[in-house]
Q: What sequence folds into this?
């Protein structure tokens, strides 16, 4: 059977949850030293699995950037960005309404959402409703800017995906143009 990274992540998370839930369902209210060791071992295993998944995702993103020859900067949160065209005016700020022409892609290059299909994306910066990484990236831009963002899964749709086209633990690529900021 073929196990891809998404299925491996699901298996690890589900295994960890089953182990943790079975450990918490014990009737004994006092934890023995054996239970503490078992609990610490489970925790360490989950930490190792999570580190592996993060490292694997980072490698996938780096490979995508390398294949496409993109020169990108990286923020402390892991957002990668490249501003290709510089517009005019002040950078976007919290509380402002932003209107974007956009495309959202997977690292496979498949376009999964776009303004061509769904219309411009409009949101107020800082009020949520969009991916954390997109909000972070928009704060780097001004009206007329064109940019590329790569959002690691924790800045995109996280462990669950979007329940439509974005699988769990999946980084996404945004190609954006800031049409307006008010």
A:
């Amino acid at each position: 059977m073929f196990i891809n990274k998404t299925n491996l992540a699901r298996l690890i998370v589900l295994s960890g949850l089953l182990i943790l839930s079975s450990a918490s369902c014990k009737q004994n209210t006092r934890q023995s030293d054996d239970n503490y060791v078992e609990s610490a071992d489970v925790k360490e295993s989950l930490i190792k699995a999570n580190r592996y998944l993060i490292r694997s995702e980072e490698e996938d993103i780096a490979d995508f950037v390398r294949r496409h020859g993109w020169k990108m900067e990286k923020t402390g949160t892991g957002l990668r960005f490249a501003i290709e065209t510089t517009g005019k005016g002040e950078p976007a700020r919290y509380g402002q309404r932003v209107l974007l022409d956009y495309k959202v892609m997977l690292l496979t290059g498949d376009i999964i959402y776009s303004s061509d299909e769904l219309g411009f994306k409009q949101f107020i910066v800082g009020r949520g409703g969009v991916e954390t990484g997109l909000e972070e990236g928009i704060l780097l831009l001004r009206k007329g800017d064109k940019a590329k963002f790569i959002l690691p899964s924790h800045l995109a749709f996280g462990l669950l995906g979007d329940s439509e086209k974005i699988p769990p633990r999946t980084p996404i690529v945004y190609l954006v143009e800031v049409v307006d900021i008010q």
